[in-house]
Amino acid sequence: xxxxxxxxxxxxxxxxxxxxxxxxxxxxxxxxxxxxxxxxxxxxxxxxxxxxxxxxxxxxxxxxxxxxxxxxxxxxxxxxxxxxxxxxxxxxxxxxxxxxxxxxxxxxxxxxxxxxxxxxxxxxxxxxxxxxxxxxxxxxxxxxxxxxxxxxxxxxxxxxxxxxxxxxxxxxxxxxxxxxxxxxxxxxxxxxxxxxxxxxxxxxxxxxxxxxxxxxxxxxxxxxxxxxxxxxxxxxxxxxxxxxxxxxxxxxxxxxxxxxxxxxxxxxxxxxxxxxxxxxxxxxxxxxxx
Amino acid sequence: xxxxxxxxxxxxxxxxxxxxxxxxxxxxxxxxxxxxxxxxxxxxxxxxxxxxxxxxxxxxxxxxxxxxxxxxxxxxxxxxxxxxxxxxxxxxxxxxxxxxxxxxxxxxxxxxxxxxxxxxxxxxxxxxxxxxxxxx
Lengths: 290, 136
Description:
The structure holds two protein chains of two kinds. By secondary structure, chain A is α/β, with parallel strands linked by helices.
């Protein structure tokens, strides 16, 4: 049985752990708010953008002259997976869930005899995938010194992706990230971004647009931006999900620490009582022996 | 007086403005264009330039670097890659943009040189118009 001093130290140590997890929870709550605001602010752009691209690709998409970004290379032999995870840990199953989805996809694609290439964004996912798939890695984007996610970061990733697509390094690109639903639920998602799949929305009401310069020129100009826009949206979702996951993980940790402190305190009090009783027995039996 | 038209300017990171205006002067890829209410539905791509929205007694100016605009009879939506109110432009931003554009031009595929060259030239032009120096 641990002695009283050990128990006391143990309680003090768990208490300070609880303080830390509590503080982390509050920090991620604040960060989550900011991440959600950023995601909210980017929505009008993404919505209008997708609507216009939807209308455009509906009218040009079927033709033979459709850009490769929209029509694809006509093959799906080489698959590029972009796995987006966080740079920091202590966020519950957030990274593991994304990586698990990616692993499933990799196994599936390999079983079909496809070539798989992996680009990782964020350190944590890279670490988890390194053990089994380090030979598939082609590039890594490090966002660890990024304070505030900006469109430039998405553009940077998109640029790398497009350069590879232009030099025919892959046929299909899929991004893996976590969609933010609420603080306790984040849904790992796989989304194909190249070739792009835009749905023509109904609300354009069949309005026929004039295009300046030409329909094809605008589409060729917009599609690469579309890749960046989708990556940006995914990065923002991921950031919000990460903070949400961390918040609930830290909430759990704080609660567990509290339970542990209660248990240890009971144990401590019992031991203390036992020591006192023991001492009394010794004194009384000593007195009786006289 | 001209009828009012809803004008929205959004960039990927934020919504810059959403107001009723009379006309908007847009730097289109093929030349400037002034859009007013009742415009034919049009989609045009932008070049780096100054976008001016004029409404009842107000005039707002924004620097945009690229993207596209969607015009219809009663709305004008501009989706700019990067948009800044004119007042937020600074020498720092200009230098940054020019550096990026120069780098992009140097790295660009020879087939795309005319595009990056034009982008750079437009950028220099707008920067000089606003009174910033453009030698890096």
